[in-house]
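Fold it.
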Amino acid sequence: MFCSRPLKSLKGIVISDGTREAYAGPNCAKKHLGAPEERLLDVARLAMLVVSDGDPSDEPPPLPAGDPVPQSGPEAIGGKASVARAPLPPLDSVVQYLRLRYEVMNGFKFQRSALLTEAYSSLQSGDLDETLRKRVAGTMRSAQANRTVFSERNIKHVIGLNFWIHEALNNTPKERASFLEAMVRTLHSRWSLSRGQLEAINKWGANLRRRVHGFPHLDVGIFDGVITPDFMLQKTKRDSKPADGAEE
């Protein structure tokens, strides 16, 4: 067996374990395999990025005595932050970023921009223009440094979470799907969910696993520290008013 936990559902992910085949659910698989390397825009593999590292039925490890409460910001490192500027992302990352935004995130608000559209069109023509590549790479670097929802890391999390919510929707009767549909609308407009919303999805998933044994326990910390720009929040508030023609 891949791990000592019995596979009650008789379903799971099959991997190579030396000379034997091994079987495990998504949470156990991620714990042992780590995060996937994504090159072919395999959304099912990106979905592993939002699966929690531990199995939800595992006992949580005790916290070390005297551990300080984690902090964020300059105070967390004892003064003013002094961080060297990161290099520009490589070409492969830029290409993947463009493809994720334009080929996978259809239906998300703010999916497109003038710069990204021009760069994606250049990429589609067969060779990404060098000036456009650098501009997109600079945008990616800024998003990562500022921890905004537009960072490459976050859009992978958004895509992975979107995958699992739609898996849940596909296995939920229409008359009971209002909660999940609301989570999709929020994810598509803000590119993140709160911890409380992710915990609520996990509670929903606990019931769903009675029918769909492969539905995982999600990592509720995937959007911790991620910044949603004000213009996205303001647009969401305007769209929430029926007079503005909000989608229902």
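The beta strands are 13-17, 20-24.
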